[in-house]
Design brief:
The protein is an alpha+beta fold. It is 35% helix and 25% strand. The protein folds into two domains: 341 residues, no CATH class; 56 residues, Beta Barrel (OB fold (Dihydrolipoamide Acetyltransferase, E2P)). The protein contains twelve helices and 19 strands. The longest helix is centred in the C-terminal third of the chain and has 37 residues.
Length: 461
């Protein structure tokens, strides 16, 4: 899970249990490793030489599975984003052992103590990764970004690139980045605001030791470099989605807006955190006012993320415009093929249409099967993420049994109430009847079971 850091290994035992429970693989089968060894030695043969163009990567400092590298150049009033994406399809053949294993996994699975990759490390963190250790095969998408933030796919090509630098979010300087990086990100973000996009990027959660044997959940707001980097991926995925839709093909990421009940729960959650959300202000407008530096606002940003209707994948359908409510746009996933199975096929389709070629039948057929495969993978990742959060909450509150917490009812269930603690980013059930959403409660923690990853509260008022 990328959104929870555990530098002191407070969760180690519980994480081992979670890995066992959800059968998170700790290795690849021998045939897959053998196929990866052979694939890693495959020399690029369909790629133009773009090693004269200065590409860089920007990621967490410890990352080695680098999907994206970028270069930027002006073109009149526009900016051209050359977004290089790891050419995973060059190494993975349809139906081979690597492909079969990737269809079983669907995505890379993240936990605080490590990940279970979609592809073996010799590829994902070696030959296919856009590391600055030598030339790498890539697919370069050239995206034209207008002054108003409008995006258009100008071209796509297989190319050999050489990353000039592996830059890290927490240490990068403006002088390390291509000229136009901040301007491009600003254009994309301004366009989001005008569209009314509701893309929320919550801060990372960290398990912090307090020094007395107890822990707390703390927040690390995203750095400006992270938000700007995300804008490049957003621009590319939107441009690709528009191109695919125009050519009557593709696989799209869609998401409905939170329904009225979810928004009502969020209003009660905002009240629990002491936040002022004007009655007449829509959620999409209010969430753009939130500041992740404030712990309560940061916790509310996480609540918004969890309240979403959930994103899914759909293939192209005649007469249907796929829509992602949070992006307020037609959207696709194409920029993380080392970590998501679906991206490999979207990249292949985009490469074909951008060069006047027919999308391969195997790709079109994959678009019909991928929604179910990705839904299963996403659901499993969601269950793992929820288990990790439950564990972190139990570790944080262990030893505080008997303490009283203020809370607010956010929803009523058949078995009681769902509540949000006022001072902690914890949502839990409590046996409380004759209450309505928005009611204030005082609850006592009766158990924080780290083994079962459960919290128990009793109402005291």
């Amino acid at each position: 899970m990328k959104a929870l850091a555990d530098p002191d290994n407070a969760l180690a035992h519980g994480l081992a249990t979670i890995r066992d429970q959800f059968q998170v693989p700790d290795a690849f089968p021998a045939p897959v490793l053998a196929a990866a060894e052979i694939a890693a030695a495959r020399a690029p043969a369909q790629h133009v030489d773009r090693t004269d163009r200065r590409f860089v990567t920007l990621d967490p400092a410890a990352s080695t599975d680098l999907d994206q590298a970028f270069a930027i150049e002006p073109s009149g009033a526009d900016l051209l984003l050359h977004y290089a994406i790891a050419d995973v399809a060059w190494f993975v053949d349809d139906g081979d052992a690597l492909d079969t294993e990737a269809w079983q996994r669907g995505t890379t699975r993240y936990l605080p103590d490590g990940k279970a990759g979609l592809y073996p490390p010799i590829l994902a963190e070696g030959a296919a990764s856009l590391l600055p250790t030598g030339p790498r095969p890539a697919v370069i998408f050239t995206v034209r970004v207008a002054p108003d933030g409008g995006v258009r796919l100008d071209g796509a090509e297989r190319a050999i690139i050489r990353s000039a630098a592996k830059l890290a979010y927490d240490s990068v300087r403006d002088s390390d980045l291509p000229a136009g990086f901040a301007e491009l990100a600003g254009r994309i973000q301004a366009a989001e605001d005008r569209r009314g996009a509701a893309r929320v990027d919550p801060p990372e959660q960290e398990v912090a030791a307090l020094g007395d044997g107890t822990y707390q959940l703390a927040f690390r707001p995203l750095l400006e470099s992270e938000n700007r980097n995300a804008a490049m991926s957003l621009a590319t995925n939107m441009a690709i989605a528009d191109a695919l839709q125009a050519h009557h093909t593709g696989l799209f990421r869609v998401m409905a807006e939170p329904d009225a009940r979810a928004v009502k729960r969020l209003r009660h959650t905002a009240s629990a955190f002491g936040l002022t959300w004007p009655d007449a202000m829509p959620l999409t407008e209010y969430e753009r006012t939130l500041d992740a530096i404030d712990p309560r606002q940061a916790a509310f940003m996480l609540a918004i993320r969890r309240a979403g209707m959930g994103a899914s994948y759909v293939p192209y359908r005649d007469g249907v415009v796929p829509w992602h409510a949070a992006m307020a746009a037609t959207y696709a996933h194409a920029t993380a093929p080392l970590r998501r199975l679906a991206d490999r096929y979207v990249v292949r389709a985009t490469l074909a249409i951008a060069n006047g070629q027919t999308v391969p039948d195997v790709v079109t057929e994959a678009f019909t099967r991928l929604p179910q495969v990705m839904a299963r993978a996403d659901a499993l990742s969601g269950r793992i993420d929820r288990a990790v959060i439950d564990l972190a909450e139990a570790v944080m509150l262990h030893g505080q049994e008997g303490q009283v917490f203020p809370a607010v009812v956010t929803d009523v269930t058949d078995h009681g109430a769902r509540m949000q603690l006022r001072d902690l980013p914890v949502v839990a059930n409590v046996s409380a009847h004759n209450v309505t959403p928005g009611d204030a409660l005082r609850v006592r923690l009766t158990a924080a079971d780290r083994e079962q990853r459960t919290l128990s509260f009793e109402r005291i008022n």
